[in-house]
Specification:
With about 250 residues, the chain is an alpha/beta fold. Helix content is about 15%, strand content about 25%. The longest helix is centred in the last third of the chain and has 11 residues.
């Protein structure tokens, strides 16, 4: 199994429009962060986690082959605003999208033309599947366990894929959810910035959480320009807890 980070930035992306800060003016490509999304792949199965407004730009460099499922973490625009751009993949058949009830409702509101009784020719062919925390399912040869984290007061989904756990937009997690993370070897989790935020973890929060999970390696995502430059931040972090970057590929062995 491998994980490809398609985007590691927050809702505004990096550089942020109109900003001339130390991070946004960096020439290092590691400091260019599109909105959060990732591919989880084996030889036979390909899953997309979230489909934000940068999806077209993110997927163009990737091999063009079937997407077996799209897993939505929550219904915010930066995580599902690119769904219309999945149209080319419909040549392989309907696109199966998996989301909790709130995100399913958001999908119906955002893309009503995809679910109309008489659909306009050429709209994305989406098969929407409602999923729930702690109800495991399998797509191809990839086992998936959804669990719940809190994005401020909004319950959203994290996903466990065997030894890999992927979490974005978390502020807190209930103790009752932690058993679903036991055995995680590669953890992906959000770290927005250093100063506190009402709905996202800080870097210190993410480091503390990573140590609590005890993963062999942790990659930080959903990072804003306020976090600083990639190389400078990673130099201050433990070697086993690092900022991810767009385009990075992780082998999950």
């Amino acid at each position: 199994m491998k994980l490809t980070f398609l985007g590691t930035g927050t809702s505004c992306g990096v550089p942020t429009i109109g900003c001339q800060c130390h991070t946004c003016t960096s020439l290092d490509p590691h400091d260019k962060r599109l909105r959060c999304s990732a591919l989880v792949e084996t030889e036979t199965t390909r899953l997309l986690i979230d489909c934000g407004p940068d999806f077209r730009q993110q997927i163009l460099p990737q091999p063009f082959r079937k997407i077996d499922g799209i897993l939505i973490t929550h219904a915010h625009y930066d995580h599902m605003g690119g769904m219309d751009d999945i149209r080319p993949y419909c040549q392989f058949g309907e696109i199966n999208v998996y989301a909790d009830p709130l995100a399913c409702e958001g999908m119906l509101q955002m893309l009503p033309y995809c679910f109309a009784e008489h659909r306009y020719p050429g709209v994305p062919a989406i098969q929407l599947h409602e999923i729930h925390r702690h109800e495991a399912f399998t797509i191809g040869d990839i086992p998936i366990m959804p669990f719940e984290v809190m994005h401020h007061d909004l319950p959203i989904l994290g996903y466990r894929f065997d030894k890999l756990t992927y979490i974005t937009d978390m502020k807190t997690i209930a103790d009752a959810e932690l058993p679903y993370l036991q055995g995680t070897e590669v953890l992906v989790v959000n770290a927005l910035r250093n100063k506190p935020h009402h709905s996202h973890q800080t870097v210190d929060d993410a480091v503390s959480f990573a140590r609590r999970v005890g993963a062999r390696q942790t990659w930080l995502i959903h990072s804003s320009h306020d976090i600083g430059r990639h190389a400078e931040v990673n130099a201050q972090l433990p070697p086993n807890i690092q900022l991810a970057y767009d385009g990075q590929i992780i082998d999950i062995r």
